[in-house]
From TrEMBL:
Pfam families reported in the protein's UniProt record: I-set (PF07679)
Domain Fibronectin type-III: 111-157
Protein keywords: Immunoglobulin domain, Repeat
UniProt-recorded name of the protein: Myomesin-2-like
Length: 157
């Protein structure tokens, strides 16, 4: 006789939040996860999420959660959780909307989006970005980029 597998009992709805806020998505299961079900997987826009300093993944006996700390606009998207079952994979998904944070200067534009560094040299750096979704009713003409020097101390274990 097969053990009773866990299925989704409740899960997260579409959610709206503002940049910089923390987000926790949670789903509950109908029973305790069986050993083969304990590898619950989380995805954003089809890309599997991994644990790191600002992404926390937790799986308990009857629930799983994803916490994003200090959400950025680029983290907006379709979030999915996959649960393995005897018959394959069950999934739940919902869209997470991220509004721009308030501008640093009242009435000013928001931060640039999708910032990418493509080349770093001693004398220069190439940056590309998308314009902010909220421009504060003014055309963004450019940004100031400041250079600072950091001292890195290696840590040996």
């Amino acid at each position: 006789m097969l053990e009773r597998e866990a299925l989704f009992e409740f899960s997260f709805p579409p959610t709206w939040l503002k940049e910089g806020e923390n987000l926790t998505l949670q789903c509950g299961f109908s029973s305790a996860l069986l050993p083969f079900q304990q590898d619950v997987a989380w995805f954003r826009d089809g890309v599997q999420l991994r644990q790191f300093s600002r992404v926390e993944l937790q799986t308990a006996l009857c629930s799983a959660s994803l916490t994003l700390k200090g959400v950025h606009k680029e983290q907006e998207g379709m979030y999915m959780v996959h649960l393995r079952t005897w018959e394959g994979v069950k999934e739940h998904k919902a869209y997470i909307f991220v509004k721009d944070a308030s501008a640093v200067v009242s009435g000013g534009p928001g931060s640039p989006l999708a910032l990418k560094v493509s080349d770093v040299q001693k004398d220069y750096v190439f940056l590309t970005w998308e314009p902010p979704s909220a421009d504060g009713d003014y055309q963004v003409e450019g940004y100031f980029v400041e250079r600072c020097f950091l001292t890195v101390t290696p840590v040996f274990h």
